[in-house]
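Q: I'm teaching a short session on how sequence maps to structure, and I want students to see two examples side by side rather than one. Could you give me a first protein with its sequence written out and its structure tokens following it? Keep the formatting plain so it prints cleanly on a handout.
A: Of course. Example one:
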Amino acid sequence: MEARKWAVASPLVVQDVAPTRCEHAGAAGGMLDVDGYPFCVGRVFASCEAVGERHTADREVFWASGACFFIRREAWELAGGFDGSLFAHMEEIDVCWRLKNQGLRVGCVGSVRVQHLGGGTLAVASPKKTYLNFRNNLIVMLKNRRGFWPTFMVRRMALDGLAAWKFLLGGEVRLFWAVGMAHASLYRRLFATLKVRRRLQRVAVSQEAPLVGWWPRSVVWHHFVRGAQTVWDLPNFLPGR
């Protein structure tokens, strides 16, 4: 961390039940697409790769996994810690994004492995987990992303709507409802979140903060339509070094 000037870092996170495979919560370093959807080196949506040499390299990333999270005290104090309203999901992405907007860097130490039992707090198919994932992701993006917020939020929420209909057509009525409840929660706290956004924008170092790990294209499109299963399949995506 000293050599690379990282403020936050995580290890390579592998599955507890299958240690030869990357784990959903972080894998070999967290990334973010243009619509705020998180993905990882080693994991794109539910597709987790077997661990290989390209996962064990140290690299700069967008976010470090909260499953095993190391942060400098001064960075923690600068960020103000985790947002207590973001229970169980996305709070580490929020902290990392806030720090990156202030010019700090985040990394993944691929030479260190930690086994993680995914779904230990909430089961993967839990409607509450779906609700928190969608709600917290929307809040984090509204708080931290630069630019004219109505444009990128409308686009993102439209994509969430497609995901909700996919749940419904697949018979997952409770998950469909969870996405709707996530959006309703955002509406209820919209003005409070915009107030936080204005405060964070004032302390951001510039309009062009170093956002290594931000991919300015849609991972949703390339995964679900174009068939990309790994970050190596994404056009013009360069995992940090």
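Q: Perfect. Now a second example for contrast.
A: Example two:
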Amino acid sequence: MERGRYDVTDKVAVVTGGSRGIGRAIAMTLAEAGATVVIASRRFEECRNAADEITNAGGTAMPYRADISSVANSQALVDFVVGHYGHVDVLVNNAGTAHSRRLMTEISESLWDKVWDLNVKGMFFCSQAAAKDMIQRHSGKIINVASMAAGIPSANLVPYVTSKGAIAQLTKAMALDLAPYGINVNAVGPNWTLTDLTSKYLETDQGRRDVLSKTPLGRVGTPQDTANAVLFLASSASDFITGQILYVDGGWVAGK
């Protein structure tokens, strides 16, 4: 990849949920563009494998075990990065969870809390911890991984859909708070993306037909599609952009 205006050399980037899928692609892409990447998730072995792949390719990466649904863990992650590298330049809040489809009357309190503790509370407090460091330097990029669901709800996914809608507002609200300190806060909203978690559905005839029929560009999204958008938002090319959601959806939202 030619870095050019998307060069993030000497930037320290933290990617939560970075051990697989979209998060892993983001970590790899930021590293290819010159960033030092800390890959954080509950799956330490997968984090280490991703970090090893980056270092074997000539990049710089470190694995870190963290459950972002815990406020203490979020703070500890940022404290570790600042202690080891001196600062945090880019935070990518990719850690998140979904759930199987079920009617709203079948949603338990524990399921609601599981989704919201990671998707919303975890995202906020990880951002808060990073922002404290960024404010001191009047510089930083926070990028939230939302979903197309932030703009288009789906049936039988109430906790997930509402959490992604909350991320859209959280992104805007944090952007307003942090703009005076030179910190950009944006989000990306992927469409159905082919990963290990979605392949079972997307590789069926029905699933593929359903997704492609609603995607004007006529293909299923890849983790790299989202990673490219994150790199743009992490780089200086997006310095005058904040409080926005960049939908990486092949035109799905536009068609609604």
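Q: What should students look for in example two?
A: Point them to this: The mean pLDDT is 93. Also worth mentioning: The chain has one domain: 4-255.
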